[in-house]
Amino acid sequence: MTFDLHPEMDPLIKARAALPPGKNLNEDRANWSAYARANSVPPPAGMTVTDTTVQGRDGDAIPVRIYAPAGAGPKAGLLYFHGGGFVKGDCDTSDTNGWGLAAETGAVVVSVDYRLAPEHPYPAALHDCIDVLLHVHGAPEVYGVDPKRLGVAGDSAGGNLAAAVSIWAKVEGGPPLRCQGLIYPCLTDRLEFESYKRNAEAPGLSTANMMGYWKAYLGDAMAGQSTDPLATPLCVKDLSGQPPTYVLVAEYDPLIDDGVAYAGKLMAAGVETGFFRADRMIHGFVRARINGKETAKAFSAMTQFLQAKLA
């Protein structure tokens, strides 16, 4: 299939094309880091960036990166979970997204370097994200945040984790969240939506690769048949009581129907829901926002929503 791509996608596609074929997971991770570096710029002047760790329930120290905009606090707090198919990525590969959220919302953003599959399958990543949320809420002075003004956001696999953390917080009486931002999230392992056929070979993400990510995250026995809403949030039965949510999707992405369906379920449950479809754009498109005016508009549509809810 031919995709009528927006010109702002060209730098992303060229950066991918310049990478050598990955022969194994380690090479894929190295390629992901190189791809991220090719599309990254440093945070703006005046923003304080600090790397530290949070002790996780399983005994591991969870690396986090704190982006604190200039100005007196305490500020709202926004936890950010990076993408990478559950198997790739860290605070470095998501740096531009992390500081971008802080710059545009005015919140202190805590980017979580959660454990990766397949070495650490579900629910390790989710546990890390929850544990950092609990620490931010319980020790707000460490981060310079107001514990009553917290939200979550994530892209792709991180969008899955943001949705799962929000569901967990409601069901388990966790810290109250003001909002969540879901950027082209993967929310079901069934891969039965029409977009998985229509966009099966889209430049940013293929359907085959997405199934491989699910198998790494959930294991071969569970992938494709999960009924656990904390693993696959789209199968949740009751979304009432979820915080105001913004869903950002791309036209040429196998995951677009995940986001559309979840936004519909949220609205049907009475949850305030914002939605933006980035036409002619691909999975991962927000990386192009630095030099792309239309991409920046899409990103800002979400950040303005989050900023208002965190005010």
Give an account of the 3D structure.
The N and C termini lie far apart (about 45 Å). The model has no long low-confidence stretch (mean pLDDT about 95). By secondary structure, the protein is an alpha/beta fold. It has a single domain, classed as Alpha/Beta hydrolase fold, catalytic domain (Rossmann fold). The protein contains 10 helices and 8 strands. The longest helix has 18 residues. Helix content is about 35%, strand content about 20%. Strands 1-2-4-3-5-6-7-8 form an 8-stranded mixed beta sheet, with helices on both faces. Helix 4 crosses helix 6.
Portion of residues in helices?
25-40%
Large-scale geometry: globular
CATH topology: Rossmann fold
Flag low-confidence runs.
Answer: none
Order of strands across the widest beta sheet? Answer: 1-2-4-3-5-6-7-8
What count of domains describes the coordinates? 1
